[in-house]
């Protein structure tokens, strides 16, 4: 189809005329090429996001490991303190008994 006659009174844009002359297959091919470019850009963008997510995940795993080490250290210290408290209570009871025995005439 030739649209040139419809546009003869209008200022002619050569690029517009070229676009109007393209057949349907050419237009579809150009659209597919553009979609391919957009898809490739999206893939690159999502790959970048995936890499960033993996880096963040790795960092969080390291922080969790450090936190777990800290929790274990605190738990071990609490257990030692509890054992020492039990021993201290035994000694206190022993000294209290001795004091009571010495206080009796």
Task: Tell me what the structure shows.
This is DUF1068 domain-containing protein. Helices cover 84% and strands 0% of the residues. By secondary structure, it is mainly alpha-helical. It is rod-shaped and about 130 Å long. The protein starts with 13 loop residues before the first helix and ends with a helix. 0% of the residues are buried. The model has no long low-confidence stretch (mean pLDDT 89).
Distance between the termini: 130 Å
In terms of DSSP E residues, the strand content is: under 5%
Into how many domains do the coordinates divide?
Answer: 1
Question: Which descriptor suits the 3D outline?
Answer: rod-shaped
Summed up, the helix count is: 2
What proportion of the residues is helical, as a percent range? over 70%
**Low-confidence runs of at least 5 consecutive residues:** none
Q: Got a strand count?
A: 0
Structural class: mainly alpha
Biggest β-sheet, characterized? none
**Averaged pLDDT:** 89
The string of secondary-structure elements, in order, is HH
Q: What is the CA-based Rg, rounded?
A: 42 Å
